Backbone:
């Protein structure tokens, strides 16, 4: 199958899966617990914790916030939700445990060379307690890397107060969504995103968005976590307002439709992504992916695609603090009238 055919078929899927999403085969529950999570890594050898079919919905409750971290930050034990103690039982680190990932989820029938489609049906905060810190590569030697702050989310007004009169509305999303890397890569830390997804920290992957990931293992082995109540583009301190989330995803399997890099769409935009330690290279990858997408799916030549991207495509700095930096390119769907 040619790359043109692959991408063209994905474009058709953009249109047809909306109807499919209304008819889930099964709804599964996957709550965070010591037996359903793994912390801070991806690994193709991990045993799945849930098996699903294409089209199934997974109702998630993810956990972010090691209670020992909150205690060390000065939060009285009786103010820390007891369920966090249960989730982090046996976790020896005193770190915040942001990348406590639900999964892996085994998608029946998925094989290397397929594409997994993850529809974010809903996502929201479920606990009021959150953490943030400064561990930024942008300010070496300038700011104490041990800075920690506890936030209390106003669940009624859906805001976080940073200082008197400084209030930020929440916009929840999962920072980490990824499939297992190829087996030959072994155990891979979840700190940096990669071609299999992972810690993309993409604030535009909220409710109503769709993420497409290449499959590298039988079952795909999908994992999700790293709840963010709110984050700016760039995430310059190295941390969002990190908290526990709840929500629903619907997963579809598309056979024999390879992708090299993650792609996505929102209700209003198509999105391509570039990931690289060099921000310039990340931008080049994101732009090249979008140009390829337009040429292969919209019936325009490459020169026209480049000119169109220069006036209608936005290049967004996803994050600059994960070692592997992110750029995502977005172009509005309403540009295309046919």
Residues:
């Amino acid at each position: 199958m040619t790359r043109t055919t692959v991408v063209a078929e994905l474009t058709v899927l953009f249109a047809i899966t909306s109807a499919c999403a209304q008819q889930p085969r099964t709804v599964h529950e996957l709550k965070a617990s010591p037996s359903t999570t793994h912390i801070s890594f991806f690994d193709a050898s991990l045993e799945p914790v849930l098996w699903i079919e294409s089209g199934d919905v997974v109702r998630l409750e993810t956990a972010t916030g090691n209670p020992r971290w909150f205690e060390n930050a000065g939060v009285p034990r009786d103010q820390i939700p007891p369920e966090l103690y249960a989730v982090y039982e046996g976790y020896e680190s005193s770190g915040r445990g942001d990348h406590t990932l639900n999964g892996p989820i085994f998608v029946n029938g998925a094989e290397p060379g397929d594409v997994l489609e993850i529809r974010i049906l809903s996502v929201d905060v479920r606990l009021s307690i959150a953490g943030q810190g400064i561990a930024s590569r942008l300010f070496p030697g300038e700011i104490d890397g041990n800075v920690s702050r506890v936030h209390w989310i106003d669940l009624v007004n859906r805001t976080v107060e940073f200082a008197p009169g400084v209030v930020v509305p929440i916009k929840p999303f999962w920072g980490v969504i990824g499939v297992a890397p190829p087996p030959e890569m072994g155990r891979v830390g979840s700190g940096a995103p990669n071609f299999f997804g992972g810690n993309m920290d993409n604030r535009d992957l909220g409710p109503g968005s769709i993420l497409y990931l290449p499959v590298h293992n039988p079952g795909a082995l999908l994992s999700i976590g790293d709840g963010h109540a709110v984050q700016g583009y760039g995430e310059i301190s190295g941390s969002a307002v990190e908290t526990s989330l709840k929500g629903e995803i619907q997963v579809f399997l598309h056979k024999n439709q390879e992708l090299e890099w993650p792609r996505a769409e929102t209700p209003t935009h198509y999105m391509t992504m570039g990931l690289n330690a060099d921000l310039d290279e990340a931008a080049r990858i994101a732009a090249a992916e979008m140009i390829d997408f337009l040429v292969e799916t919209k019936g325009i030549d490459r020169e026209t695609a480049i000119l169109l991207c220069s006036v209608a495509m936005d290049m967004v700095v996803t994050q600059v603090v994960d070692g592997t930096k992110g750029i995502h390119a977005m172009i509005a769907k309403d540009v295309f009238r046919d």
